[in-house]
Amino acid sequence: MQYLMLMAKYLYVITLAFHEIACQQVMVEDSSAFSVQWTDLPISMAGELTAVKLLVRYLGYVKKCTLTLIRPVTMETGIEFLLFGTGLSLITFLHPVFTEDFATLRICGGFLVQPRQCNRGELRFGVEQMSGSVRISLQLSEFRPLILGNRSPSIIRFWLYRLTQAAIHRLVTVRFLSLLYRQLVGPSIRTKLVNVDVRAGKPV
What we know:
- This protein is α+β, with helices and mostly antiparallel strands.
- The protein has 5 helices and 11 strands.
- Strands 1, 2, 3, 4, 5, 6, 7, 8, 9, 10 and 11 form an 11-stranded mixed beta sheet that branches.
- The longest helix has 20 residues, at about 165-185.
- Residues about 10-15 have low confidence and may be disordered.
């Protein structure tokens, strides 16, 4: 009996140690990129986290995880992701717009954006109260990557984007959410990615 109780307790701990991150990345009908990742935290563990603080944490994480190769810098006109030592802005955003649950960065230029589509797309950070939890999310929408070229990208361009820029964005975002979870809730045995369907499109 004691053995069974120990096994039950062990299995319960293992169940709690799994940390789920929902994820979807697709190229939608107009050939723009859509990407969303989120994780749910217990209300008691979310503390005073807000969309503003989530944005600040993310900008600091990008600089740290790239070893300062990419440096988010706040300018008079907005926020630029500068490539170290070049002054080249990979992606340029307008100043963030804040609502109760979200902080939104509108894309307005950058080397990685199609030149004629610089005023489209946004990166949104969310901290939403759910039923019994707090949902932390990052969503990239209407983004026009330079790699795709135009509204009718070739198969080569599509796979080049999928294997490079899209893969890097997913990796950075998932690791950021996983790190945030460990900082606020505690260590988990592993992160489990769960595919979700938010927007229709071709998976990238």
